[in-house]
Fold this protein.
Amino acid sequence: MSVPADAPILTAKAMREAEAACAIQGTSLSELMELAGAAVADTAWRMAAGAPTLILCGPGNNGGDGYVAARQLAARGASVRVAALGDPTTGLAKAARASWSGPVEKLDGRLAPAPLIVDALFGVGLSRPIAGDLAAILGHFSDRRILAVDVPGGVDSDGIEDWIPPLPADVTLALGALKPAHLLLPTAPACGRVLLAPIGISASKTMRSLPKSQSHTPDATAHKFTRGMVLVFGGPMRGAAGLAAAAALRAGAGYVVLEGNAHAPFASIIAESDAKFGERLSDPRVGTVVIGPGYPAGDALLFDVEAALDSGKPLVLDAAAIDAALPRLSETPRKAILTPHEGEFGRAFPQAYGSKIDRAKAAAVRTQAVVIYKGADTIIAAPDGRVAAAWPGSPWLATAGTGDVLAGACGAMLARGGDAFDAAVAAVGWHIAQAARIGPGLVADDLIRD
């Protein structure tokens, strides 16, 4: 499972608007369909490797892409058949069907399969899941190689509905831009490997997939404080705050102070008692305050969160510290990153609805903070509408303490200065890259070791 890095993501509505803009600028919708069909044909040609191909065409424009692909494959000398649910219903699909000179079989239970099946049934904008007889028919092809056009048939491309396609894809060819369903659970695994076909539309990167992780190299004039000073407040669960502090160092911070009774895992971390709490918060060199790892809800946490908010410092808030800070977060604009997992997000933002992207965006607007909505399909959202989607992450991160490590990494990235959204994107990329380096058997402590 994979998706292209740093690629645009468009909802069905945004995709239609992008196509309409192309038409205004001189590229007709029929030309876009020709480009899309050519991309499908090229991908099918490589996947089939000379074996016969069966293209399943729906009644709309996704089916039109399939007819164009069939014509282009036949022109290459490929063995290609077409089966359809019925007659095309859009003008573009009718024209594409007319351009296909071969026979069109009926998509029913008697349809003979082929080594490669191209799913050009519905694409984006589907209003209901595939069920009943059609689902059963498609299930008969599940042992074949499957190429889905844009999204597998039966998927809500916007990722709002949790519809599972009856014919999961080995490869999905996204047309023009990625769609939310390519990067959100539960549909992302059903898309298999996602490829992106640039078909000439101009797609904004306001929403995008996670860029490739890049290391940050300090310049020749750097010293420990210019690289960023991070202050981590430890709670009763000493190990969690220690992980966060160590992660801040590993992710690039030049100086880390661990406040409270937590044990510092590295000698280079300055471990202090609460006696210097106020002094450290007023230190102008502190670039970020991290609070929440290992710190359960209670009066002590509320006191420390209030003090951190009063300091005006950039914040990374994790776990129970998110709830503690919510009443005041949007009152005074500041750089802040929140790192909730599913349960924490649900408690903090119970009224959020829509896809995971929609919910993360709403939480970011409400708090005026960057939100890292953690999970296998992590979403990073900024108050100004920017979104980065990190799929796939690493399944080995599903273990205790890895969220504390991410909070520390966010602290390091944010302490450098600059944009909080970019810091969050860099931290998530570093976190996933560390996990990929370690692989099976990962425990959180491994992420902070060299």
